[in-house]
Queue: 2 jobs
Job 1
Amino acid sequence: MEIIAKKYPYNNYKDNERTVCSLKEIEKRKIVEHNDLITSVAKMDKVPLKIFELAVSLIDTDNPPKNNTIYLSKTELFAFFKVDDSNKHSRFKEAIMTLHQQSVFEIREMNVHKNKFEYRVISPLEETTWNDYNDIISMTFTKSIMPYLIELKTKFTQYALSDLVDLNSKYSIILYKWLSMNYNQYEHYSVKGGRRTEQVESYRNPSISIKELRLMTDTVTDYKRFDHFETRVLKNAIEEINTHTHFNVTYEKVKKGRSIDSIVFHITKKPVARNDFYKLEEQDPI
């Protein structure tokens, strides 16, 4: 517990100082996940999904956590969700219960030899513990999820934790991560080469079929009419992403016959202030 105390010396701060400290820490932090996790189906609501992302941001991929366990501050958690009301502790407990009881990832991995998908269903967390007398939350990831969080030599995506703070829809979070995966590859191959010009541009203007988009957003049986799907899933998500993240995104609908078959997104990055924590030159290579 001595190490935890050094990492989270919040007991010495006043409440407002602790919140400021937490927010500054959130601004600096990045999340790294395997692309197969990015494109998986996250069967969880917005709050559990954001708690999972916050927990992942605490993983040091160069020094994986012992026993797959990270330590999170309650102060930081409440700052991340901008919660300051009197029932925040009960709401936190409810979110953790949902995360453990209902949340899974459906992961598809391509078998290159058979040219067919293989499927895995993974629960992200094994255990979460906390108490009423200090600020520390202990979260233990399952053994099955860890390869997608630490074995990241290739096919991984990095993005800013701060971009997720104000996203208020699970669709916004899922789509933002997928757009980040593509745009990171655009940035990488634009600098390093190794892809034809049209391939590089396809990362900045990625296309996805409606079928795949419905799978990824877990809306296969929801919003059957495309106009409802577009309003609830696409338009709202793009508006939030443009307002609260470092991306500006537009999209166009591609028809096949009389039906909308796919969506092409067009991604640009907003100008980055010199003192911003999330600078292009600071990003690790893909």
Note: Residues 1-21, 274-286 have pLDDT under 50 and may be disordered.
Job 2
Amino acid sequence: MSDRPLVLVVSAGDETYRGYCLEQVAAAYDVVLLTGTEPSWEKPFIVDHAVVDLTDFAALLDGGRALADRHDLAGVVTWDEWNLVPTARLARALGLSSNSVEVMRSCRNKAAARGLFALHGVPSAASMKARTLLEAGLATMTLGYPAVIKPAAFAGSIGVIRVDRSEELPAAFAFASEGASRSREDTRVLVEEYLDGPEFSVECVTHRGETTAVAVTRKHLGPAPYFDETGHTVDAADPLLVQVAPAAAAAVKALGITEGVQHVELRLVNGRPRLIEVNGRIGGDMIGHLVRLATGIDLPKAAADLACDRTPDITPTRRGAAGIRMLYPDASGTLTARHINTPFAAHTPWLRQVQWIREIGEKLLLPPEGDLFTARAGFYIVTGRNTDEVTERLDTAADEITLTTRADR
């Protein structure tokens, strides 16, 4: 038997985007897994598992208790957005360390978070709930244009759209409502003030109520009116971190979070941070991996440490930069070609990863018909000394990658 502490992971997620999380946790912990499907790629990183219906909390609880009966669990953790609340409930049921269920619900619900930000004086966006198109129209009369229409409790920028004038509101409300209908927690829609400024996220680690901002991620978005994220860069020496860290920490505190890793999204409006939302888990789109490449800080291990009531080591060991760029088609259609210059890839050490996630013959659908799950064909990651070098290398690599679609009739 291993003498390493044992942590329960709820939903390891997709191998492409979350495989690094499980691998890094398994380097320090023995892992047991609650999963919705029989493990495949996860097998080298786990010592036991239970397959349950993750959407049924009674089944999830039974599976967690069965694993707890077989193992001496030190903690339970998830980096899956959809399982933040069930994981908090499971931890409490098993007598393990966790933020409260109510706190995690506030992270998941943008309307609840906005209320707590306002209560605690954290600068955010003005926001109003809208159950009908009429209510959305009344909200825009108060908030003005441009406005943002979004699901109250979803993720991945799905259903999020900017509206610049009243004529666009019916189609925008329908788009946001369709996204909201896919939520298991809240199917309402929010109408919000548009925050006009560059978008960032702050990657935070909170232990015993004290939040440390370990990195800032500069985000790149696709064309309006949608908010699809097309790339990210992380620089260990980014001077913006000092500027935005206090706002991120204040937002985490306002929600009542005392432990864990957070991905805090904000925009700079007239040079001042305004909160978008706090995600109570490691950022998606490989951001945790970028943080490690740039700073050496291991966010998945930190999340497991905190779940097991241990003090994480978040001392930077690198001082570089890293970036990711998503591969989207110019227009929706059937993927007919995907290619990277093989000699370039083989002789370019700073090109750390090229990952295709769609196959020839598959359809790629951009918004409004599709979303990030249907539009992306892949991504690539580069490293460098600083943001400027990483940006230059992202552009250089783009010239060596071919992505072609054929319009469907």
Note: The chain has four domains: 6-98, 126-193, 196-319, 322-409.
